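Bumping with the actual sequence this time:
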Amino acid sequence: QVQLVESGGGLVQVGGSLRLSCAASGRTFSNYFIGWFRQAPGKEREFVAEVGWMGGPTTYADSVKGRFTITKPNAWNTLYLQMNNLTPNDTAVYYCATRNRYSTQYVDWGQGTQVTVSS
């Protein structure tokens, strides 16, 4: 059974930074992509970033390019999202998810971690 467990969320002021983590288990992920999504109150869930499980390529939403960095160290089953220069628009629940590299559909999801940016 696949488990994705996010952590690292919290309350931060505008311009601050947070690093999210996602611990993955329950499957051999070598043919998978793993990524981050977010959902703000009253809005649809949106893509943030993704990376191949074995490393690169990385893809980012335009709204986070240059501020967020997704990393997945090869030897670890943990995904990270370094978020810098945060704004109130980044306030959301952040989810970790995986998809098979031959599919565009994300099928495994974590429970999410709340990120709140105060102005």
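The tokens above came from a reply further down the thread. The longest strand covers residues 92-100.
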